[in-house]
Fold this protein.
Amino acid sequence: LWMMYRCGWASKENQERVLAVRITREGFDEILANAYTPKAQEAAGLPKAQLKVRLQWDPDHEPAGTTRLPRRAIQLGLKGEILHRYASDWIVSITDITDTVQEQYRVLQTSGTDQLQVAAERVYHVSDPKTKALIGADDWAG
């Protein structure tokens, strides 16, 4: 839902297509295990060039984008070997959901959030304590 909002519901320039990418849990856990927030990067003394995954916590919003939620949305920047493994090993499916996103924006504009038909969102629980600490997941527990 956050990405639908961020791309202007598939209306921003160069963001007119929305793809739903499903990856394996193993792959996502591996991505998180290699992710560094700017704070963790600084604490580890790692130059940006050595990072495999850059993690940024963003404010999460309700679908209209006007109200912030008490949780955070995650942005992950992948490069190098992790990006290669993402593309070649971890992707389960890719679905173009642009038409659905645009239709749901029309629903939002005319009927509000009660009529939206979007995937159920739930908190992703990081099970590895080292990864949880590295990415600052405890900072956003609520």
In short: The longest strand covers residues 68-78.
